[in-house]
Write a structure and sequence with these properties.
Layout (H helix, E strand, L loop, with lengths): L1 H23 L6 H17 L11 H24 L23 H20 L20
Helix pairs in contact: 1-2, 1-4, 2-3, 2-4, 3-4
């Protein structure tokens, strides 16, 4: 349960930060939106789960980042299809007009996508525990017969 919450939080923070930056840059749709959600997916894939500096090889976080690009874009397309007409009234201080649908506001859709992908990564990568190693100088365990 802790892994699920940790993945949701990490993914939401990364998605929120990138979504906020994209909102300030004026991203709403088109190629810029695809790039935004690709970056969210890649960063969540790299940062969630086992930390990159604790991985056995550099390829593990690299592959999670590459797959995250596809997952981020795929979740954006799914969210755009499912939530395309949903409008949420937001404060004007955010700089979002009330006519914009949820799928065109990266500050809202980014954390949702990041949290979903982060939760999956944490469940997959973070749940493994290292095997117990015998103490130095201890007799090796006898095999079962």
């Amino acid at each position: 349960m802790l892994r699920v919450v940790l993945g949701l939080l990490k993914g939401a923070v990364v998605g929120g930060a990138i979504g906020w930056a994209a909102l300030k840059l004026g991203v709403g749709g088109g190629a810029a939106a695809f790039a935004t959600y690709a970056v969210i997916g890649a960063l969540v894939g790299i940062l969630c789960g086992k930390p990159p500096w604790r991985q056995d090889t550099i390829w593990t976080p690299a592959i999670k980042g590459i797959v995250g690009v596809g997952v981020g874009i795929g979740l954006y397309l799914l969210g755009h299809k499912v939530l395309g007409g949903l409008h949420i009234a937001l404060p004007a201080s955010l700089g979002v007009s009330p006519e914009r649908p949820l799928a065109e506001v990266p500050l809202l859709l980014g954390p949702i996508i990041g949290a979903a992908w982060g939760m999956l990564i944490e469940l997959d990568d973070g749940g493994s525990k290292p095997k117990d190693k015998p103490a130095p100088g201890a007799a090796p365990a006898k095999p079962r017969q």
